[in-house]
């Protein structure tokens, strides 16, 4: 069991996951700071409240803190937008010519050759 655990850790997937979690936590802190210190005050100008998380209303003894929900929605939208932009930039950066991808991936090259041979044999069969 210890050997399997060692192989699991060394394989890279666990390390990649750990790095992703740590980076995600750091990224969340940055986004929270942006929302709290930059976007929150801009929204507060229009809403009249300095701290959105303080916005609330009560019905009887129930207190509805809709300001915190607004903060969380803003955080979610910003995180989603930034991740979208980062993924889009990465995809654009690594986008390759499909012919070059075939040359680099031996499995894809083999499949392409098989497809081409099948096309040739189907064309010959259709002519006969």
UniProtKB/TrEMBL annotation:
Keywords: Cell membrane, Ion channel, Ion transport, Membrane, Transmembrane, Transmembrane helix, Transport. The keyword Transmembrane helix applies. GO terms for molecular function: mechanosensitive monoatomic ion channel activity. One of its GO terms (cellular component) is plasma membrane. The keyword Signal does not apply. Its main location: membrane. It comes from the Bacteria. It is a multi-pass membrane protein. Signal peptide: none annotated. Pfam families: MscL (PF01741). The chain crosses the membrane at residues 12-31, 73-90. It is found in: Cell membrane; Membrane. Belongs to the MscL family. Channel that opens in response to stretch forces in the membrane lipid bilayer. May participate in the regulation of osmotic pressure changes within the cell. Homopentamer. This is Large-conductance mechanosensitive channel.
């Amino acid at each position: 069991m210890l050997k399997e655990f060692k192989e699991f850790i060394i394989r890279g997937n666990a390390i990649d996951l750990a790095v992703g979690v740590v980076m995600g936590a750091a990224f969340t802190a940055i986004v929270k700071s942006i929302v709290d210190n930059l976007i929150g005050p801009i929204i507060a100008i229009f809403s009249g409240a300095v701290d959105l998380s303080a916005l609330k209303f009560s019905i009887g003894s129930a207190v509805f803190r809709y300001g915190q929900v607004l903060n969380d929605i803003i955080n979610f939208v910003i995180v989603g937008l930034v991740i979208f932009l980062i993924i889009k930039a990465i995809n654009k950066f690594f986008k390759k010519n499909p012919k070059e991808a075939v040359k680099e991936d031996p499995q894809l090259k083999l499949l392409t050759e098989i497809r081409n041979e099948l096309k040739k044999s189907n064309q010959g069969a259709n002519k006969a």
